[in-house]
Amino acid sequence: MKPFVLLATRSEDQPADAEYALFLRYAGLDERDLVRVRLEAAPMPRLDLDAISGIFVGGGPFNASDPPERKTPVQHRVEAEFDALLDEVVARDFPFLGACYGVGPLGVHQGGSIDRTHAEPISVVPVTLTDAGASDPILAGLPRMFDAFVGHKEAISSLPRSATLLASSPTCPVQMFRVGSNVYATQFHPELDLDGIILRIHAYGGYGYFADDEVEATIAAARRAPVSHPSRMLRNFVERHAR
């Protein structure tokens, strides 16, 4: 099998390593079949799309809607690299699944509006599939409504014309969308389980997701409901696109 690639942007080793382990587990891959590229550490290598099966994008600290002067040189580089990669990915309708941070690069690339209107604190939210989502092969086996982990400062407020809406939540109208047949982004985290999100809560204190005295309340919000369905889409993505 040609490997999949995980494009990651987390600079902290513990949550970065945990994220990679979660993608391995829930996508049903081993390390030889999921190549991790840490974009915060070095420029994106040239990806030969003919040599890989598909691309995953993990979450991260960057916000597409931040003013340019507030973005670091690394963020500017990463955004430019994603823009160039997505030129080829979208043109070829190449398998791509961006989790949380993936919404920013793909949404911007396709001309969508991204701002802080529909931010969601770290928590569990009910996600509802649209008719298009219910019939999408990547979402096969998921119920029409399921709980998912979220935590984001920005979201799409105006869906690109090229995109098909697949899922929504009460506080974030665009939880998942598709461009073409094979290019996806989710605002929720399909790779996360409870241990994973608790690790991130402890790792990202002071990053503006919650106040210093809200750690326990944030963990309680993550425990609000069991989350078991979203990870299925990672295995569906692999089973559909492995080659």
From TrEMBL:
<dbReference type="GO" id="GO:0005829">
    <property type="term" value="C:cytosol"/>
</dbReference>
<feature type="domain" description="Glutamine amidotransferase">
    <location>
        <begin position="49"/>
        <end position="193"/>
    </location>
</feature>
<dbReference type="InterPro" id="IPR017926">
    <property type="entry name" value="GATASE"/>
</dbReference>
<protein>
    <submittedName>
        <fullName>GMP synthase (Glutamine-hydrolysing)</fullName>
    </submittedName>
</protein>
<dbReference type="InterPro" id="IPR044992">
    <property type="entry name" value="ChyE-like"/>
</dbReference>
<dbReference type="Pfam" id="PF00117">
    <property type="entry name" value="GATase"/>
</dbReference>
<dbReference type="InterPro" id="IPR029062">
    <property type="entry name" value="Class_I_gatase-like"/>
</dbReference>
